[in-house]
């Protein structure tokens, strides 16, 4: 298993669901708990069938037992992040959420007794995290595929990770059986530069966020779309126009293509090495910067 998911044995006293929710509140996190059964079809966004090189296309993405045989519960943890407005998405700022969420999940796992087995997943792994977030009651599904938190002031600006345990968690409410959806106001569809959002979810091949992160050369169509968007890495436009995000403060960020064209690997590592953007490396962002300047 990779560094963002794993199987472990842990120690300490078993927590109640109230104790887990209290931990989340104290640490500024979102938390939901659902049973360890497979996801019902309704929890899958239609766009998951399209797949990308970044996302597992395994047919069992909804079965937690593929990651932890004998799983009883799935604890979904959400970590809010700052909303930004600029040529870099939120991936270019702050601490890499993979490391931050993994640390939180490890602390939660340490609350369970030594006989409990657990597994973690943050982004990289076989399970469909957004589906489990919906089943655990963290929020509702947006037309852009994002999970919109029901907790005030968060909106869709949060990353998530999963903690699977094979032990019992006292006091857990029944899992949600249906998916709550947004009002389908159409704001995200109208704002998407590539018209990537439709009735079937998000088409990654027309999504600026996906195009800006994919490695290698771009097609003429992808190049034209990326240039029109003005983005250097990622894209949060569908989130910025969402009515559910109106209460989330947006921080303007000024960054220019020339900043990256003149940057070497050492400077990139020093400035962005601890961000979630760093995994793709400087060359992909330089490619995007060259596209931007034409």
Mean pLDDT: 91
Q: What is the beta-strand fraction?
A: 15-25%
Spatial separation of the terminal alpha carbons: 41 Å
Strand arrangement in the largest pleated sheet = 1-5-8-3-2
Profile the largest sheet.
Answer: 5 strands, antiparallel
In DSSP terms, counting alpha (H) and pi (I) runs of 4 or more, how many helices? 10
Outline: globular
Query: Could you give the order of the helices and strands?
Result: EHEEEHEHEEEHEEHHHEHHH
Notable traits:
294 residues, alpha+beta, 5-stranded antiparallel β-sheet, two-stranded parallel sheet, disordered N terminus
Could you write a compact summary of the structure shown?
This protein is α+β, with helices and mostly antiparallel strands. The protein has a domain at 6-165.
Structure report:
With 294 residues, the chain is α+β, with helices and mostly antiparallel strands. It has a domain at 6-165. The chain has ten helices and eleven strands. The strands form four sheets. Strands 1-5-8-3-2 form a five-stranded antiparallel beta sheet, with helices on both faces. Helix 6 packs across helix 10. The model is unreliable at 1-6 (pLDDT under 50).
Please render the helix and strand layout as text.
Elements lengths: L4 E5 L7 H10 L3 E6 L37 E8 L2 E3 L11 H13 L7 E5 L7 H7 L3 E3 L5 E3 L8 E8 L21 H5 L5 E2 L2 E2 L5 H6 L6 H10 L7 H4 L9 E3 L4 H5 L3 H8 L9 H12 L1
Parallel strand pairs: 4-11
Antiparallel strand pairs: 1-5, 2-3, 3-8, 5-8, 6-7, 9-10
Helix pairs in contact: 6-10
